[in-house]
Amino acid sequence: MREKEICNYIEAWLNDYVEKAGLSGFIIGISGGIDSALTSTLCARTGKKTLLLNMPIRQTKAEYDRAKEHIEDLKMKYSNVQALEIDLTSIFDLFETTVPSEVLADHLSMANSRARIRMTTLYAVGQTNNCLVVGTGNKIEDFGVGFYTKYGDGGVDISPIADLTKTDVKKLASELNVVSSILLAKPTDGLWEDGRSDEDQLGASYPELEWAMDFKGDYENVTEREKEVLNIYKKYNRINKHKMEPIPVCLLPNSLK
Questions:
Q1: CB proximity list for 189: less than 8 A, separation 6 or greater
Q2: What is the pLDDT, as a whole number, of residue 181?
Q3: CA–CA distance from 56 to each of 29, 85, 118 (Å)?
Q4: How many domains does the chain have?
Q5: Radius of gyration of the chain measured on its C-alpha atoms
Q6: What are phi and psi for residue 29, nearest 5 degrees?
């Protein structure tokens, strides 16, 4: 993989897009994970305004500390980087007191609500600062297993790393000297107070899921674990297909118009 050339290509793509859009720069939600770390670094390298938004909602200390460390590292390296922290815990607390009890009891629904509150905040701050909201999803998440929140972290203007696998992301992040605490951390979506990892939720690692995404061989000639991973991949790809395809539109026949 030609890491340096790919970084330069994405940087140029970002620069071209924001200039054609007539906007000032980029805003990125910083989670303490490697995807947002790489994305924000690529944005910072353009020289355009790059606003890093930290939006904790009952974050684990490890997630919060990694996010802060990355933000401080980028601010030190790039003069065009600005940072803002908005603690959304009180907003989420109020949301919990407002929704029906059956919604409150649905832990996945409430986890996704965190992502949607953050998306609303990103767009509010981004619009005020004339910035594009930049997505941090990678290829396996966005187009393989659909591991993101619809209209949460999936609600963005542009997706600069969505053609990179998680393995690619790690290589590029290492090339750009992202802080080691993020490079070494287990991937997590940051939506759970127990700090569960992506692998805990999915039942397979990203290298395994990337293998399944590209699998073209004979299902009968794989190991039991590989069969398990293929089934995990197919399940998530099927149930999350609605996230990965355009919103269905009911097109009226001419006879009814």
A1: 31, 33, 115, 147, 148, 153, 198, 201
A2: 95
A3: 10, 8, 9
A4: 1
A5: 19
A6: -80, 125
Task: Identify residue 257 by its one-letter amino acid code.
Answer: K
CATH number, domain containing residue 51: 3.40.50.620
DSSP 8-state assignment for residue 248? P
Q: Are 187 and 166 in contact (CB under 8 A)?
A: yes
pLDDT of 1 over the 80 cut: no
DSSP state of 81: E
Alpha carbons 138 and 35: distance in angstroms, whole number: 7
pLDDT in tens, 174-190: 999 999 999 999 888 88
- In sequence order, the 6+-apart residues with CB closer than 8 A to the CB of 243 are 146, 148, 150, 154
- Reduce the DSSP state of residue 50 to 3 states and report it: strand
Pairwise CA distance, residues 165 & 137, whole Å = 10
Write out the residue range of the structural domain in which residue 152 sits: 3-195
- Contact 156/115 with Cβ under 8 angstroms? no
Q: How far apart are CA 57 and CA 37, in angstroms?
A: 19
Q: How far apart are CA 30 and CA 52, in angstroms?
A: 6
**66 membership: H or E segment, kind and range:** helix 61-77
Q: Please indicate, yes or no, if residue 231 is contained in any of the structural domains.
A: no
- pLDDT score, position 183: 95
Give per-residue pLDDT as tens, 187-202. Answer: 888 888 888 889 999 9
**CA dihedral angle for residue 233, residue 237, residue 243, residue 246, rounded to 10 degrees:** 140
With respect to residue 222, please indicate whether it lies within any of the assigned structural domains.
no
pTM for the whole structure: 0.93
In a domain, 215, yes or no: no
